[in-house]
Amino acid sequence: MNTNSSRNLGSIVYAVMLVPLEKFTLAHQRRVLKDNPQEITKKRVFYVGQTGLTAQQRYEQHRAGYKAGRKWVMYYGM
User: What is the pLDDT of residue 4?
Assistant: First the structure.
């Protein structure tokens, strides 16, 4: 039995830095500002998630569009 598999490691929280907000589409800018009403225009935008995989494996899934939800990382991940 492989005790180093990602299923045995539990889950991790990860963050992906996204491009600056002004590079988002207008609709996505509005969504980010609606969901985050605090002043963020001069701050970096991050996508935060939780996974049982390694952060690199999950990032690659996001970039490929697999289980990507609203596809923030696919569209705007750095």
Answer: 47
Single out the residue of 74, 26, 21, 15 nearest to residue 50, CA to CA.
15
∠ at Cα 54 (20, 72), nearest 5°?
Answer: 25
Q: Kindly state the average pLDDT of the residues 21-50.
A: 84
Q: Supply the DSSP symbol for 19.
A: P
Tell me how far apart the alpha carbons of residues 77 and 24 are, in angstroms, rounded to a whole number. Answer: 11
Which two structure tokens, joined as six digits, stand for 70?
């609203």
Structure tokens at 30: 């509005």
Mean pLDDT of 27-42: 80
Residue 20 per-residue DSSP state: P
For residue 7, report the phi and psi dihedrals to the nearest 5 degrees. -70, -25
